[in-house]
Amino acid sequence: MNLPDYVEARRRTKSKVDIEMYSNDIKGIGIGKTYHIKTYGCQMNEHDSENIKAILEELGFTYCEDYESSDLVLLNTCSIRENAHNKAFGMLGRLKHLKESSNPNLIVGLCGCMAQEEGVVKEIISKYKWVNFVFGTHNLHRLPYLLNENFKSNKSEIEVFSYEGNIIEGMPVKRDSKYKAFVNIIYGCDKFCTYCIVPFTRGKQRSRLKEDIISEVEQLVRDGYQEVTLLGQNVNAYGKDLELGYGMEELLEEVSKTNIPRIRFVTSHPWDFTDGMIDVIAKHKNIMPAIHLPVQSGSSSVLKLMGRRYSKEDYLTLFSKIKEKIPNVSISTDIIVGFPSETEEDFKETVELCHFCKFDNAFTFIYSPRENTAAAKLKDDTPLRVKEQRLNQLNDVVNKYFLENNKKLIGEYVPVLVEGISDKKNELYGYTDTNKLINFKGDESLIGKIVRVKVTDAKTWSLDGELDER
Ligand code: SAH
Ligand code: SF4
Ligand code: F3S
Questions:
Q1: Which CATH number fits the domain 6-159, given the four candidates 2.115.10.20, 3.40.50.12160, 3.30.70.260, 3.40.630.30?
Q2: How far is the CA of 199 from the centre of ligand 2 (A)?
């Protein structure tokens, strides 16, 4: 048994990051069995699940749509806010019931960010003894061994490491899409924003070697992929830890030369966004003009308490530079309301910033204290009712601009990567270069292609269009 440790999780040293090649000599333990994965949280987790699925399928497991009739159910969890946490525990409750009623041999596993939390694993050990195995974000590659041990001993296998982390190359992957792919470029986070649990659950900031990234993208091009999303908690810090004088600007330039039709990247921390990066994005047609630039708050004093390392003015300067230099760019954001000590005046500044920025999309959240983070120790005397009012008020403001921006596109021709058929309307759907969802009529054979669509109508969260057949 290896348990997570909050003190170790916070430690940062200059020690070298090891790069290990994935290997596995356990064979066939899943033959005749089915699996189901529930994935919570961000794209990082979605991509980890793509690796986990491939590992399970290599062991012989086959995917089952319905968790209730699967032999193995794995929860890939997220710790970012309390509701993500509650969802996973709610699901564990349902799995317990399933195990007790109709499926006594059900194998249940838990992984992802919650598995890195000392408190969560203690709770699993004391109250959820029937969970078969737990592993963390640093050891997905150990899954075959953990499962094998659990099958042999029939005892819970718990293996979570709270070290800074290494990099595992060569993991198998079963991608959810044939057209769009996630590519990790940097793991972990060293920013330690005071509200955030990610630096504790994902280890230190560590960049993949550019050679490994480029060869993955080149393979995707050969496989016919149309789009890559470069992934990291803060992609703009790419390369800083390698100290090779090669950063996000150079990486974007080189990925662009692979001729993959579309490049996206998430998430950009404003602190590390350089002028050089803006120029590279503006210069290359295959780098999409859509930037996710979380602001978190419009009040410089709240930003300071959040440990974000920029002021409202810094953010607005960067925002304006991006708007000015990248034609047609769309900018989206994340905002937290109700951070400890946020006053009505601070909140007003956030609202004003949204009126100024007119974001194309915004993910808004009520602050959720996370165990062991610096902000969890701050006095928080704003009642939940007030926080909810602030969230509603903010949502009204940001939604108004989503619609306004979408309406401006009516009559324009936009490039769209067609992803599939929407359930509701039996129409094709896809995303524009600026990352807006659009529905339009067309033949199924267009799925996986980039087509031109004329925008005919606009809603708050989507567009309607007509295929340009010329
Ligand atoms: N690395 C990204 C954010 C990843 S988490 C960045 O720095 O921009 C995604 C979003 O969740 C954050 O941008 C923040 O808005 C929100 N979030 C993170 N911790 C939170 C907390 N404790 N309470 C509420 N929202 C939180
Ligand atoms: Fe969390 Fe801040 Fe790191 Fe983003 S940059 S993952 S918000 S600590
Ligand atoms: Fe959640 Fe972990 Fe992502 S906490 S948001 S799954 S990095």
A1: 3.40.50.12160
A2: 7
